[in-house]
User: Which sequence fits this backbone?
């Protein structure tokens, strides 16, 4: 079964809604989203790689990582975790930053609400990404978020099949 990434843009509500099914148990998909060693294997669109510097997956904790490009480029990001319901959902704010986690305010923050559910043989991840301003949403879309995230989720398919 091939799973397709659905991304809906709602400019009026300043949000993106992403839905993706995976051919794996929800527990396995949850681990892939919440453990650094798993995230590093799929999060970045190829040929880029995600490299975790630190991760504390707890409310108030942070994931600091870089997306490393094939020519030595590095784009640093931090994800601040707010709420976590183990195996079911988490909320977080993602921001571009420097290698020490200092936020780069020239890029918009993305507020993530990730929900995981089991539908028989598959797991479905429902994600709502909201923005402070509609122009922030547009900037992230123009930067290639939809294509890059879709590629990353395809990488996750490959990882889950192993």
Assistant:
């Amino acid at each position: 079964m091939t799973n397709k990434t659905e991304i809906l843009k709602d400019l009026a509500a300043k949000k993106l809604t992403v839905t993706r099914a995976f051919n794996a148990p929800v527990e396995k998909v949850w681990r892939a989203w919440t453990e650094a060693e798993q995230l590093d294997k799929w999060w970045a669109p190829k040929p880029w790689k995600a490299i975790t510097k630190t991760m504390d997956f707890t409310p108030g904790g942070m994931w600091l990582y870089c997306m490393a490009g094939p020519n030595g480029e590095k784009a640093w990001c931090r994800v601040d975790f707010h709420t976590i319901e183990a195996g079911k959902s988490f909320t977080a704010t993602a921001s571009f930053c420097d290698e020490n986690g200092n936020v780069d305010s020239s890029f918009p923050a993305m507020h993530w609400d990730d929900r995981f559910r089991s539908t028989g043989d598959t797991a479905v991840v429902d994600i709502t990404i909201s923005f402070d301003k509609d122009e922030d949403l547009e900037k992230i879309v123009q930067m290639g978020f939809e294509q890059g995230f879709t590629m990353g989720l395809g990488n996750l398919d490959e990882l889950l099949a192993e």
User: Anything to note?
Assistant: DSSP finds four helices and eight strands in the chain.
